[in-house]
Design a protein that fits this description.
It contains three helices and two strands; from the N terminus they run αββαα. The longest helix has 23 residues. 4% of the residues are buried.
């Protein structure tokens, strides 16, 4: 199977590997410990899957905003902000 249609760098491969590992871990967690909805700061009932989706979506927007506003600043700053955002989402959302 030819994969030259995409620039498969080590960073790209790591990103997709971690994404699939996260989805596998969430699936295993859902099987072992069924989810219960809870109402957080957003005011609507969310499950772990909902919070994961909101975290991934928010991280994408944080990285896009970082690229637009920070210019040549290293991208690890956006990753750090995204990790803090993700922790807050899973704690309070």
């Amino acid at each position: 199977m030819a994969l030259d249609w995409m620039a498969w760098t080590s960073e790209t491969a790591l990103f997709f590997a971690l994404l699939f590992a996260t989805l596998a871990a969430m699936t295993a967690l859902a099987i072992l410990r069924p989810e219960t909805e809870r109402v957080g700061i957003l005011g609507l009932p969310t499950t772990r899957g909902d919070r994961l989706f909101l975290t991934l979506l928010g991280a994408a927007f944080i990285h896009l905003a970082w690229l637009a506003l920070a210019g040549e600043a290293p991208l690890w700053g956006a990753s750090l902000v995204s990790l803090i955002y993700g922790a807050a989402m899973f704690r309070w959302a």
